[in-house]
Design a protein that fits this description.
CATH superfamily: Glutaredoxin
Largest sheet: 7 strands, mixed
Number of domains: 1
Order of helices and strands: HEEHEHEHEHEEH
Distance between the termini: 58 Å
Radius of gyration: 17 Å
Number of strands: 7
Helix content: 40-55%
């Protein structure tokens, strides 16, 4: 009986700890801002997109993740559909640029792809698995930080921008 109570208390503490981390990430902080290179070597800053007051979807992915590659097709579709309402940045988490270029070429990816070799952006948004989606609204508030593709939330924010 004591062991179960201790386990429950331990799980409760872990839940409170991780819920506190998630709740604390309500607004994009200066520490989470990043400057990464795209596949052409141009520098891209998150702040430049947030300054436009338009929603931004950060899609953290790797070349070896089958779920990421499946979601890349959805990302491209929504990027084309909402190109004037939402910015989508596909951020590769720590892989070699040649590997990323090969996948982008083979899959015909049209979305902006950024390379995060030192994983500064990946760590800044507490990414612990891929795919991870971080949806930031036009005010800089984090709406979603999860492993599911937030299509409904993207459509809602994009719809607000179209109005």
């Amino acid at each position: 009986m004591k062991i179960s109570a201790l386990r429950c208390a331990g799980f409760a503490l872990l839940f409170v700890f991780f819920a506190g981390i998630a709740a604390g990430a309500d607004h994009v902080t200066r520490e989470q801002d990043f400057v990464l290179s795209d596949l052409h070597g141009s520098k891209v800053a998150l702040a430049s997109f947030l300054d436009n007051k338009r929603p931004v979807l950060l899609f953290f992915w790797t070349t070896w993740c089958p779920y990421c590659l499946k979601d890349m097709k959805n990302i491209d579709r929504l990027a084309a559909e909402y190109k004037d309402a939402v910015t989508i940045l596909a951020i590769n988490a720590g892989e070699d640029k040649r590997d990323v270029e090969r996948v982008v070429r083979n899959y015909g990816v049209k979305t902006i792809v950024l390379i995060d070799p030192a994983q500064t952006a990946t760590e800044g948004f507490h990414v612990i698995g891929v795919p991870t989606f971080v949806l930031i609204n036009g005010a800089g508030d984090i709406e979603v930080n999860d492993n599911y593709f937030p299509e409904k939330e993207i459509r809602a924010l994009a719809g607000e921008r179209k109005s």
